[in-house]
Amino acid sequence: xxxxxxxxxxxxxxxxxxxxxxxxxxxxxxxxxxxxxxxxxxxxxxxxxxxxxxxxxxxxxxxxxxxxxxxxxxxxxxxxxxxxxxxxxxxxxxxxxxxxxxxxxxxxxxxxxxxxxxxxxxxxxxxxxxxxxxxxxxxxxxxxxxxxxxxxxxxxxxxxxxxxxxxxxxxxxxxxxxxxxxxxxxxxxxxxxxxxxxxxxxxxxxxxxxxxxxxxxxxxxxxxxxxxx
Length: 229
Description:
Distance between the termini: 43 Å
Helix content: 55-70%
Number of helices: 12
Number of domains: 2
Radius of gyration: 19 Å
Order of helices and strands: EEHEHEHHHHHHHHHH
Largest sheet: 2 strands, antiparallel
Shape: globular
Strand order of the largest sheet: 1-2
Structural class: mainly alpha
Strand content: 5-15%
Number of strands: 4
């Protein structure tokens, strides 16, 4: 079971849709996004997608909304995926290096992490491969010039994952799930109940800058297409 959540310009999070399946299930992910379009979400409107490293989800965004939208990879997922493939004596060092790199300008940060991947390649090739995969999309918010005040909420998928505890709390006493429809009803109701406790997202006063940046990028892309035509 997964869902799509939006950090809207009204400064609060709100749940948009629930879909049974996993983020690695291409059909389920695409169905979720298609539901959003059917409900009136316009694919042509410029958006910033913040996702984990699921390849099926990344591909579905391109198919349903188009490749022109910027995508930010969750840095927490990236750090976790790299560190869990390292021996204990290297974990803290690599984690600190990755976090420090994320605070740099995109070009410099990417260069530093590529050097780190080259170093890891000698003895920890699996970790090096994880670090290189989708590396540039970990710096999307840096490259777009999004204010640092918004980095904490837009650099990870915590906005989506944190409400999961509320759903678990509200559904933990259910001993028998009769069918898939029951699961969907309970999960949707639990998310709506949890949503009432949501606070304003961190950096909400600067969300207007995010909107302005995305609009500017959309205008630049449209102008570039006209020049090519």
